[in-house]
Specification:
membrane, 18 helices, transmembrane, four-stranded mixed sheet
Length: about 550
């Protein structure tokens, strides 16, 4: 197989590099090079500590999503397995860390901070180990910091920096793991050696990383598998690989699959559930992609292709230019697909990290190859040209959201009404935007009303289900987890917006069922679709916001 260095690379200097005249001899530069791994480890630990201390971030949007995570984790703690025992929506590699985190806090809502710290720590250490001894210290630090910000930010991707929430945090993990795949199959496999004439060593362990990442995404959130495979396959074709790299990919994938089996992954129920989820969306993938492209994907693709094309012409031979532009189009395409299939209202995270990678390459070229002064200046200028308009705004929004969450907690600004349940007492859900039944005082009143109704009309050993968006009642009251059903109900997400539904799969077999009276079930026009389930229940009580039914075993 053809190594990247044989398919077009920047010409190395004909005279030895005088290290006394380079920036790496500066005291700070030497310190960074010697202590890069330690500095990265400290940064990872600090970000994880912040997430643990924040617990459940002050929530300003999508408050109900917290109970998806708590209910799913509660089910696993009760001995259930995702896909096999309930309609999980996500894989075992999301649910097991959530179960561990909430178990450590006695299923207090603050366990969400521990869960996010676990995922952030894994991603940060993974990035560090992948890049260690393969790139200069400053590259290691920049890439690790980028992966940490991408994973840990306190806003859902696509939302304004002020709209704090843990909702859809799994999308952040997905994008971060795809970034790790990108670092192996494109950055280390071809781009960094070509731009800097620096070898990156054996590909076996890099391959293990990529194989593990692809299978991990399948067992986390399957919608990220296609972008991951697209980037991995394109990287292998564009930048070539070695047999040891391919062997590593196979070994990494098998290793994670075996770990998944040990953690409770069951392949056959998983395949059945993935097929059901694929039929839940009324909009085709192509239509969703078209909407994203019409929004801003095409513009970003054009800007990136133009900027990278111009800078590559300045500093690189034509074969490298073509391969680099091909990689750019693949990454942007994967990003557009990921956004289209993940209910994301804005942002293109992979495009942002790809712009960051481009800036790293240009700075690496200017500092490693020692080109003529004019070319070095042009390279640094081009790095800023692609970094500032594309990557900086995205990472700035992410960083600002986390700083805002920390400030809100430290200054005691999280003073909204709290749900009247010990496990949820720390959950700050101030009204900010969206439906009043999803955040703020009214949402708290709705949940409190449901909790009181459940305590009044059900026994402590009875399981509780809900036809609301999510089910906070079982975990808040410490009730047995109902068998079957889904941790959330969302048309056009985990069940079809139109047409027949498998109500028994969605609702399961709870002994007591709470039906929201403040709105129709799940969404406009959906109430009648659950009549088949309600036929098996008897009405036993009601309140301003809920109606409660008990299962009739007849």
């Amino acid at each position: 197989m053809t190594p990247a260095s044989d398919v077009g690379s920047i010409e190395a200097p004909t005279t030895p590099i005088d290290t006394a005249r380079t920036g790496t001899t500066h005291r700070f530069g030497r310190f960074v090079e010697r202590r890069a791994v330690l500095l990265a480890a400290v940064l990872i630990a600090a970000v994880c500590a912040v997430q643990v201390l924040l617990g459940i971030v002050p929530t300003r949007i999508y408050a109900q999503d917290l109970f998806i995570f708590m209910d799913g984790a509660w089910r696993l703690a009760s001995g259930q397995l995702p896909q096999q025992d309930f309609y999980a929506g996500f894989g075992v590699l999301l649910w097991r860390p959530l179960q561990l985190a909430f178990t450590l806090t006695g299923f207090d809502a603050s366990g969400m901070g521990i869960a996010r710290a676990l995922f952030t720590g894994v991603v940060g250490v993974w990035t560090l180990l992948l890049l260690r001894r393969r790139v200069p210290g400053w590259v290691l630090l920049v890439a690790t910091a980028a992966s940490l910000v991408l994973t840990s930010a306190a806003r859902p991707i696509g939302e304004h920096a002020d709209l704090l929430s843990n909702a859809m945090f799994y999308n952040r993990i997905g994008f971060a793991v795809v970034f790790i795949i990108l670092l192996d199959t494109m950055f280390l496999a071809g781009l960094w050696p070509a731009f800097t004439r620096t070898p990156v060593g054996d590909g076996l362990w890099r391959g293990v990383s990529t194989g593990a990442a692809v299978v991990a995404l399948a067992l986390l959130k399957v919608s990220f598998v296609i972008p991951a495979v697209l980037i991995a396959a394109a990287g292998l074709l564009i930048w070539r690989t070695s047999r040891r790299h391919l062997l590593g990919i196979a070994a990494g994938g098998v290793g994670v699959a075996l770990a998944g089996l040990a953690l409770g992954w069951r392949p056959v129920p998983w395949i059945v559930e993935m097929a059901r989820l694929s039929r839940a969306r009324s909009t085709s993938v192509l239509d969703s992609v078209a909407l994203v492209v019409a929004d801003d994907g095409l513009l970003l693709a054009f800007v990136l292709a133009l900027c990278f094309g111009l800078l590559a012409v300045v500093v690189a031979p034509r074969p490298l230019v073509l391969r680099y532009l091909a990689s750019t189009l693949v990454v942007v395409g994967a990003d557009v697909y990921a956004r289209a299939t993940n209910m994301q209202r804005g942002d293109l995270p992979l495009t942002a990290v790809w712009a960051l990678v481009g800036a790293i390459l240009l700075v690496g070229y200017a500092t490693s190859v020692r080109p003529p002064r004019a070319r070095a200046i042009a390279a640094i200028g081009a790095a800023l040209a692609v970094l500032v308009p594309v990557a900086v705004p995205y990472f700035a929004r992410d960083a600002r959201s986390t700083m805002l969450a920390a400030r809100t907690v430290v200054l005691g600004e999280a003073d909204s009404p709290r749900i009247d349940a010990p496990r949820l007492a720390g959950f700050d859900t101030a009204f900010w935007t969206g439906s009043k039944t999803e955040n703020g005082a009214l949402y708290v009143a709705i949940i409190d009303d449901g909790l009181a109704l459940a305590e009044r009309y059900s026994d402590p050993d009875e399981s509780i289900g809900s036809l609301g968006f999510s089910n906070p009642f079982s975990v808040a009251l410490g009730r047995p987890a109902a068998h079957g059903g889904a941790p959330w109900l969302h048309p056009d997400n985990n069940f079809p917006k139109d047409g027949p539904i498998d109500a028994e799969v969605l609702v399961g077999e709870p002994e007591v069922l709470l039906v929201p009276a403040y709105r129709e079930i799940a969404s406009d026009g959906d109430a009648h679709r659950f009549d088949e389930v309600l036929d098996d229940y008897d009405l036993v009580g009601s309140s301003p916001y809920w109606t409660i039914y008990r299962h009739d075993p007849r």
